[in-house]
Amino acid sequence: MNTIMRKIIKIDEEKCDGCGICAEACHEGAIRIIDGKAKLVSETYCDGLGDCIGECPQGAISFEMREAAAYDEEAVKRHMAAKAAGKSSADPLPCGCPGSAARDLRAAPSATLQARPEAAPAPLQSELVNWPVQIRLVPETAPWLHKAELVIGADCVPFAFPDFHRTFLAGGDKVCLIGCPKLDDAQSYVEKLTRIISYNETPAITVVRMEVPCCGGMTRILEAACEASERNISLKIVTIGIRGDILDKETIRFSRRQP
């Protein structure tokens, strides 16, 4: 088999406790738990994008540059199809991502939602000030981007969090952008958002993501873009649960590099 020099995962079995989170997070099924440890089952299944890294609580997964077989998308499709054929309908879907697992949300609501007081719903009004909103379609020099605070949402968020407009877009002309870190080209997002931030002197960004592992890609995209822009900028990260509650908030501040 021909090999090339490329980025590929490295698993430290001394640190690995076999929890299986990385295997669930890997969209290509490149990782399996074998004899209580995470194993790379085939180099051809690893795309080198690293969705598994952020999910390892033990820090057992890293990247290394080495000679390896090239990533084979067709082989991954066959592999995942075969894997899916042996699963029940209650298991995660064939992509291997737990964020795609079918869940019935009609069960009892979470404690956070139960605590909310009953109230007559007020009519919802759009707080959107810009169009388009999809990151790939937004002109980088659109006038409404100049010095505007950006609210960047994973595209599942407004469906899980129905008060998205009033919570994140109301008050000030906040520009809304959306994208999918799993289905879209993450690197092109990093490059485009870096240009948007740099050209338009963006002062602050709020990224709203879902709790599912694959949605962590949106956070990594924004962190990379803020770092590459070399501007003073704050990045607020809000995590939404699949039942519609806010699970976590975090703010990271990036500083302009000194010459």
CATH fold-level label of the largest domain: Rossmann fold
Q: Number of domains in the coordinates? A: 2
Beta-strand content: 15-25%
Main sheet specs? 5 strands, mixed
Q: Per the principal axes of the C-alpha atoms, what is the gross shape?
A: globular
The main sheet orders its strands as 6-5-7-8-9
> If you average the pLDDT, what whole number results?
83
Would you write up a description of this structure?
The chain is an alpha/beta fold and 259 residues long. The protein has two domains: 96 residues, Alpha-Beta Plaits (2-Layer Sandwich), CATH 3.30.70.20; 128 residues, Rossmann fold (3-Layer(aba) Sandwich). The chain is 24% helix and 23% strand. The protein has a five-stranded mixed sheet with strand order 6-5-7-8-9. It has a two-stranded antiparallel sheet with strand order 1-4. A hairpin with a 2-residue loop joins β2 and β3. α6 crosses α7. The longest helix has 15 residues. It starts with a strand and ends in a 5-residue tail after the last strand.
Quickly list its features.
single chain; 259 residues; alpha/beta; Alpha-Beta Plaits
Describe this structure in a few short sentences.
This protein is α/β, with parallel strands linked by helices and 259 residues long. Helices cover 24% and strands 23% of the residues. Strands 6-5-7-8-9 form a 5-stranded mixed β-sheet. It has a two-stranded antiparallel sheet with strand order 1-4. The protein has a two-stranded antiparallel ribbon with strand order 2-3.
